[in-house]
Request: fold
Amino acid sequence: MPIVQIHILEGRTVEQKRKMVDTVTKAICESLTVPPEKVRIIISNMENEDFAVAGKLVIDN
Reply:
């Protein structure tokens, strides 16, 4: 049973998340030859103040 954890920054809509999990599930099924019922996806929303790039918080860019 594949379990995928995806971290995304806040601000995505539910529709965007639906599209993402559909696309990711299809890719996992295709590459690992497993049925969709076996795929688990955990989405972690991060606030912009909880993520940094090149030594700066995203909210500071």
Observations:
- The chain has a mean pLDDT of 96.
- The longest strand covers residues 3-9.
